[in-house]
């Protein structure tokens, strides 16, 4: 039986033999890997077919296949290209532990990537990677991460409360119409000493006076800023009382 015929066979033995054949081409290997019912044994044989594993598309397809044994796919993740790692982390059929391994490998590379690569990842990667890029030193990357549709409010809050949160992140969130309108985000920004006073006063006016006092007392804000915020809510309360 020829290899083109073998890759379409229903026999697990024939499929495994085809997967291990040194003559198997990249195109035929990709045809084989499109089969959702491909036996785990054939996937293991394919992963040991040295000439094929030099091809980027084949490595990626092996990692993404839902029936690839973990002991095969997990070590292979580390050898994927950056944007292939992003794809693995976003592919629904990929098992959760493989996705997590892909995200971790990607996060470990961020410091070595160019600004352009980080910018692209900030726009398109998973929420976990977007969170890491909120802490980037480049403002454009931070803005892009804030626009990532997979980013959650809890991730933004976590970044705002991070001890190494850059000033660029605070400024970007303050300027972001979507995130800065959220109550929990405003509360976190009020606690941050890097929040511009004008924005802090605006956020304070949108919250109950008692809550603002509690936030201010529990914050690391400069004393002068605390006094200004408290005075602001007191005046606000007086104005409301006189209406």
Question: How would you describe this protein?
Answer:
It is built from 18 helices and no strands. It has 243 residues and is an all-alpha fold. Helix 9 packs across helix 10 (127-134), helix 16 (197-205) runs parallel beside helix 18 and helix 17 runs antiparallel to helix 18 (223-241). The termini are far apart.
Topology:
Layout: H1 3-6, H2 12-20, H3 26-33, H4 40-47, H5 56-64, H6 70-77, H7 82-90, H8 96-109, H9 115-124, H10 127-134, H11 139-146, H12 153-160, H13 167-175, H14 177-180, H15 183-191, H16 197-205, H17 209-217, H18 223-241
Distance between the termini: 90 Å
Mean pLDDT: 92
Biggest beta sheet summary: none
- How would you name the oligomeric state of the polypeptide chains in this document? single chain
Output the radius of gyration. 26 Å
Low-confidence stretches: none
The DSSP helix count reads 18
SSE string? HHHHHHHHHHHHHHHHHH
Shape: rod-shaped
Total strands:
0
Look at the helices and sheets and give the structural class.
mainly alpha
* Beta-strand percentage range: under 5%
Helix percentage: 55-70%
């Amino acid at each position: 039986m020829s290899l083109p015929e073998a890759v379409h066979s229903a026999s697990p033995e024939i499929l495994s033999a085809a997967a291990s054949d040194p003559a198997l081409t990249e195109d035929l290997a990709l045809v084989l890997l499109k089969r959702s019912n491909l036996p785990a044994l054939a996937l293991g044989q394919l992963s040991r077919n040295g000439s094929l594993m030099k091809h980027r598309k084949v490595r990626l397809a092996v990692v993404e296949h839902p029936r690839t044994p973990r002991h095969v796919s997990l070590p292979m993740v580390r050898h994927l290209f950056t944007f292939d790692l992003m794809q693995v982390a976003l592919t629904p059929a990929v098992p959760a532990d493989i996705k997590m391994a892909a995200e971790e490998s990607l996060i470990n590379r961020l410091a070595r990537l160019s600004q352009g690569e980080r910018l692209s990842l900030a726009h398109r990667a998973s929420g976990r990677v977007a969170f890491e890029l909120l802490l980037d030193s480049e403002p454009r990357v931070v803005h892009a991460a804030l626009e990532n549709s997979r980013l959650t409010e809890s991730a933004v809050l976590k970044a705002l409360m991070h001890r190494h949160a850059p000033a660029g992140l605070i400024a970007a969130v303050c300027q972001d119409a979507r995130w800065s309108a959220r109550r929990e985000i405003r509360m976190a920004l009020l606690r941050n000493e890097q929040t511009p006073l004008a924005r802090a006063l605006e956020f304070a006016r949108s919250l109950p006076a008692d809550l603002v006092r509690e936030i201010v007392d529990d914050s690391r804000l400069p004393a002068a800023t605390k006094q200004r915020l408290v005075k602001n809510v007191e005046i606000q309360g007086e104005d409301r009382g006189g209406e």
